[in-house]
Each structure stands twice: as C-alpha cells, then as structure tokens.
Amino acid sequence: MSQESTSAAADIAKAAKAAFEASQLIDSSEKVKALREIRKELEADKDAILEANRADLEAAQKEVDAGRMSSSLLKRLDLNKGDKWDSMLQGITDVANLPDPNGIVSYASELDDGLELYRVSCPIGVLLVIFEARPEVVVNIASLAIKSGNAAILKGGKESNETTKLLSKAIQTALSKTQISSNYIQAIQTRAEVSAILQLDQYIDLVIPRGSNSLVRNIQNNTRIPVMGHADGLCSVYIDASADAKKAVRVAVDSKVDYPAACNAAETLILHESVLPTIWPDVAKALLAADVKLLCDPPSLAVLRALSPAPPSLSTHVEPSTPESYTTEHLSLTLSVLTVPSLSAAISHINAHSSHHTDCIVTEDEAASSTFCRGVDSAGTFVNASTRFADGFRYGFGTEVGISTGRIHARGPVGLDGLVTYKYMLRSKGEQGHVVGEFGTGEGKKQYKHRRIDASAVPF
Amino acid sequence: MSQESTSAAADIAKAAKAAFEASQLIDSSEKVKALREIRKELEADKDAILEANRADLEAAQKEVDAGRMSSSLLKRLDLNKGDKWDSMLQGITDVANLPDPNGIVSYASELDDGLELYRVSCPIGVLLVIFEARPEVVVNIASLAIKSGNAAILKGGKESNETTKLLSKAIQTALSKTQISSNYIQAIQTRAEVSAILQLDQYIDLVIPRGSNSLVRNIQNNTRIPVMGHADGLCSVYIDASADAKKAVRVAVDSKVDYPAACNAAETLILHESVLPTIWPDVAKALLAADVKLLCDPPSLAVLRALSPAPPSLSTHVEPSTPESYTTEHLSLTLSVLTVPSLSAAISHINAHSSHHTDCIVTEDEAASSTFCRGVDSAGTFVNASTRFADGFRYGFGTEVGISTGRIHARGPVGLDGLVTYKYMLRSKGEQGHVVGEFGTGEGKKQYKHRRIDASAVPF
C-alpha cells in the first residue's frame, strides 16, 4: 500500500476520533437538528445527486453489457427507482424521532453510604462501515451513527462512488451548520484506504462489514479492531412431528419465496420422518407451485416420486441433494430438503450446518417449541413464524445497521441499541470522598453495602 | 506448529463445542450442583494439589535464584499462602449462589396479534481464557463459565502447570458426576495449542486474554475470533480547581498506594493550575510520606522545590517528568504529575494518554463532575472516589473474569453478565402461524403493531 494512502487514512481516522471526542458533551437535541439539516441538504442537492447517480448507472450498464456485472446489482444502484429517494429521506426523520439510546442506566448500586455506581449506555466511538452497492446505505448508516453518538467512516461499493461522494458531501455540509464536526461522517473510496484504516486500532473502535462471508473473514484476518460481521444467512425451517399442516405450508413457502435473495430466507427444509406421508406432500406441492427447486434427500425424494398424480414440475424442479446442498446459501428459489428421525436430530443438524442466523420450528407442541428455541444456537429461534421476520424494522427497532451473524456485543438485527456500549460512573457524596483502604475484613474496616438504586438516568 | 498439536487442539475445541451444545437444555440447578461437586472434589484432593503446587514453587524458586523470574510472580503461585485456598473454595460457593444470568428478557414486543418477540440472555458458547501465573484463576474462571453456561478452555502460566493440571482434573472428575460433560472445562498447557486453537473460529466464540498489552495485541493479530482483552490500566486522578483539599489527598494517596501493582492504580496525577499553590503541596507531602516517587512537570516541580521547609525526600523522590512518563503504567510507587490550565485540557489529556480504564476527578462542582464523567472516554469515570474501586467484587458482581479494556460487549469489570449474549425468540400463537407476505403497504396488508410486552422471562 502506498505511503500516500496510509498517511491520508491516518488523517481521516484521527479526524474521526477527534470529532467523536468533541461530540461527547453535545446535547441530544443537536443530533436531531443535524439529522434535520441532512434531510434539508439532500433535498436541496437532489438534482445533482441524481445526476451523479445516472453517471454511476451508465458506467454500470457498460459493465453489465460486457458481462462483468449482474443486472440485479445494477438495479440496486438506482437511487431514483420507485420511492427509494423519498424512503431514504423519510428514514432520516424516522431515526431522528427514535429515543436516544445513550444515557440509559442498566445497573445502579450504592456501594457504601453516599457512594453511587451507575452503569450507563454511551457511544462506542468511531465506526468503520463497509458495505456493498446500494448508495442510500450511506444516508441510513450516517443517520444511525449520528443518532447513537458514534462518528463513522463509510466505504461503499465502487460502483456507486459518484453518488456516495455527493451524498457524503451533503451530509458534511449539513453537519457544518451544527455543533457536530463535519468530520463526524467521512466517506472513503478505495480498498487501499480501508486496508490502512484497519491497522489504526488506536482510532477505530468497531468495524462493521456488510457482505459475504469471505468479506467478513478477510477483514477479521487483517485487523485487531473488533468486527461485527453481517455475513451469510443459512436459515432453516423444521417441520416437527406435531406440526399443523396449514402452518407448515404457509411458513415454509413464505420463508423461501417472500424474498429469496435476503439473508433471512430459508435455505433448508428439515422434515421429521413422521410428516413424510402426511404434511410433506402438501408443502412440496405449494413450494413447486411457487417455482421452487427442491434438492431432496432419499426419503423425501421417494415420497415425491411416488405421488399420484405426479406434481407437474417433478422432472424439472426436484433433484437429489448432495452433502453440499446443506451448507449452501442458495439465495434463489432453491431449497435443500432433509429428513430426520427426531427433534434432537434436527437441532444437531442445524447447530452443525446453519449460520446461526435464524431457524424456525413448525409445531403444535409447547415442549418441542421450548426445546428447539433453547437448543438451537442461533440469533433467532422462531415458532410457527417465517424466518423472514428476522429484521430490524419488523422487530420494532425503526431501522437497522444490518443483521449481525456474530455472537458478541450485538446479535441478530442491529438497531441503535447495538451501536452503544456502556461506562461506569461512580460518585462519592461522602464528606471525605471514598477510598478503598477503608474497606476490608480487619478491625474498624467498612463493608460494601451494594444496595440497588432505582434509577433510569444518572442524576448528575 | 506441529501437525500433532494442531490435531490435538482441534479435538479439544470440538469437544468443547459439543459439550456446550449438549448443555443448552440442562437445568440451572444442575450447574449449581456441578459447582458444589467441584468444591467437594477439590477438598478431597487438597493434599495432592498442594503437593503439585509445592513442585511448581520449587521449580519457580530455582528460576528466581537464577534471576529469570521475579519474586512477586513466585508469591502469586503459592496456593497455600494465607487464606488463598479457603477463599478459592468460598468463591465457588459464592458464584453458585449468584442469580443465573441466562433467560432474562431485555426486550419483548408483540409484533402483531399473537406474534411475540423476546430478546433473552443466553450463553456465548466456548471461551478460550488465557491468563498468567495465579493457579486459582482456573477455579475462578471455571466457576464463572459453568454458572454462565459457557464451556471453557483454559491456559494458565507455564509456571503453574503442575498445579493447574490437578485443579483441572478435579474439576473434570466433579463434572463427570453431573449431567454436564467433563469436556465443559478443559485445560491446555502449551503455546502451540493456543496458537492452533486461535485458528478454530468455528468452535471458539470468544478469547479472553488477561495480561499485558502486548499479549492482548499479539492474540488480536493472530485470530479471527472476537477478543475481550484485559490489558493495562493507565489510570489518572484529576484535581479540579474546585477540589476539596482533604478529598484530594485521600483519593490521590489511595489511588496510588492501596495496591500499586493493580491495573486500577493511578499512574498520573493531573493538577488544575489553580491548585498548585493551594492543594498540591499537601497532596505531594502525603504521597512522599507514603514513599511515592513523583515525576513532575515544570510547574508542579517548581512548587515543590520552593516549599519551605523542603519535604525530607525531595532530593530522592522528586524528579522532572519526560513525555514518556505520561504513557507509562508504572505499576509501582511512582506517579507522573501534570499541570493543566482547564478541565477540558485535563479531559483531552486523559482521552489521548490514558488506557480508557478508569479516571477520577476530585471536585466540589457538580457541572465539572458531569462534564468529566461524560467527556472522559473511559470504562470508569469517578467523582471523589479512588480509582481502586474499579473491581467486580466492589461493584457488587460477586466476582469477576477480569477488567475489560475493550469497548465492545463488556467494558470495565466483567462479571457473569459479561459472559452472556442474547438471542431472539419469536412465537406465533396465530391460528395459521405468521408469514411476512401478509404485511406491507398494499391493500389488505397488515401493519406491524409493536406493542411492548411486560415480561422478565420467556413464557414458553
């Protein structure tokens, strides 16, 4: 990597840390004001931003024509498609209206008379967020970062460089009208800058990569900074012995078909062997009717091949599975099907093969629900509900940074709560202050009292 | 690294993950039983364990005699010193009696009629804990891991290998009398095994290194697994313009002198320039009387040199500071002293130089308290209280894994709460289950309701 990009990256990272530290004493209302200013600035710059977006689209079209880019990626670039522009602006207002996640006390205790301890939520610091093509993510993440009190450095896909440049410029112009430094949100354009910033753990507190498993692993391999990965979703639906047939059909179809390219779509259907002759044929017919291709293990395949009349797409849409079928995130209308002899076999299969994202049981049995939800080691364990519900908006967080596939700090859909940490504030109101040397087991020593304090905010 | 240690490490890691998964459905009472069995087993094996400990001590004594080990390290090895053995056993009972940190609901919402979402605490998975000499840490960490529902692989200092082998054996024997797998707690002995296990992110969920900054950084550089570092403490005490003189003396002395080798001892004293002629002489005299060596900046040095009569140890215990003084964790009776013109200069210095562990302000001014506690970006921000209070036992957590100097997941003293994560459980009680396709903005589509549910535990 060049000396130049290393030095430029260090300047960006230092400026972000300085902007973060300077923001610690700024009032919550100023963050709301900043978000309003950003919306105004974007509205004022709309024509120029959409023109830059057209330039990105034209360049991308050439890549698609040359076979070097998928047309689905091209579609994601378009900021003027449908209500995307308006939704992006509305998202800023929605985030502004959410409660401030900072300053909330989660533990408070009087350690001694007049010695009060508060565990209180506070921002993490400087975030480095790396994401793919969709340019509106710049605005989404900037809104979440500002609201949660974190500075952010953003790196979007290179396909949207022209658009993200103008979006970032608008955000910085808006910030310059507030008490928050315009360096609070910075955009970078190159991989060399990312590589350089990944080395700067003295300035960057958390890396959030949104993309493939290989992107996340590559970043984890190249930094000491904590990584909150948003990677693949290999989700499954298990149809239990006690499943209701109608629920099984509805949940299996919705989990697979509602949006197959999403990380919370189901990739594997697991069948208790007792439902093979009863529920499986109806589920299979419904999936085939929705154009789903089924990769079946021998027992589930045998049932379909024995159906009379045969489903119309049996020859085109039903195939034997391979061991790889059960570790593949299809992201399309393909579903792997596996038969198991028991609930515990289903749980073991999921724990060994799923990506610990979201897994669902269809059952009428309360004990099976409980066992599945506790035994499956995933961020989401669902009963009779589509895996597609795993989403920050649906969970009620207003919006989300993404869906964390890590287990540390924040798991599953990450909203504002996932972008804060906590600190401990300790205050002595004692006449002589408080010192540790006075406590202990010897004669005349004080004992800790540890009386819970009922407080939702720090009283000083 | 040899093929052999890589393969042995993989077996250990796999066995730990299997033990963790098998434990998911085991009742909380069984964990308490396991802790009681461990205490019994240790009591039964006391003679053999102390004999192994004597062997470690004899080997260590030779290292000390040869000048290859410090005598303070030797002292930490001794399991039979004072009430250490009894404290270790009592610690097991104390942890057993703490509330289970799992199964606690922190967010519950009805997304739609009959569609209930619960965010519930659950174990992280498999922990790899790397620590230094003190052999009783094996028992402390094993107790915390079992109580919090995490499997653990432990690597102690090589100086205590004989002792930790027998401690681990006793723990495994005790576990074999319960439903919990004896592989739940495993000990490893070599650095080669650590290196191999650091590559196994499919089995290990969190690494907890307790030691120096360089140990923590070295591990961060060599693994994709999240690291919760317990590294240096460069803590400071700031004496504000409005400080009470008596509190300043007490807090400064206790923070430095109570236990200078601890990570929560103060290393830097920061003086508002207005207290140089008023409070500083008394603080300096008290520190010098406690045998503290002062590394002073020019203004604080000038005041001490002008004192009449001169403090007796002025010539031996007072020296000019260097820039390095303010980035050094002395871990001894040495304290760096700096003068600043303002509260905000103190905050800037701390944010730039401290290790974000624990920092204290001595002040009578409520606004200064508030500014300091919010502006200083450390895990602990204290008012008129010694930095030495930063400790899991003192905070009321019963015990601690250590004091995290990271900002992600758990910060400051880490108790049982820091060893759990959460998962989302979603249950449909609807007659047809719940699917995402029914929700949206079109005609006949349902809207999310997001009604808060008042629940402290999952009702199924």
Please give the number of β-strands of chain A. 17
CATH superfamily of the largest domain in chain A: Aldehyde Dehydrogenase, Chain A, domain 1
Percent in helix of chain A: 25-40%
Oligomer: homodimer
CATH class of the largest domain in chain A: Alpha Beta
What general form of chain A does the structure show? globular
* Gyration radius from CA atoms of chain A, angstroms: 26 Å
CATH fold descriptor of the largest domain in chain A: Aldehyde Dehydrogenase, Chain A, domain 1
Overall mean pLDDT score of chain A?
Answer: 94
Query: What number of structural domains do the residues of chain A give?
Result: 2
Strand content of chain A: 15-25%
Structural class of chain A: alpha/beta
> What's the N-to-C terminus distance of chain A?
48 Å
Largest sheet of chain A: 7 strands, parallel
Strand order of the largest sheet of chain A: 10-9-11-8-7-12-13
Examine the secondary-structure arrangement and name the CATH architecture of the largest domain in chain A: 3-Layer(aba) Sandwich
Query: Unreliable stretches of chain A, pLDDT < 50, 5 or more residues?
Result: none
- Greatest chain-chain contact: A-B, 84 and 84 residues
Discrete helix count of chain A: 16
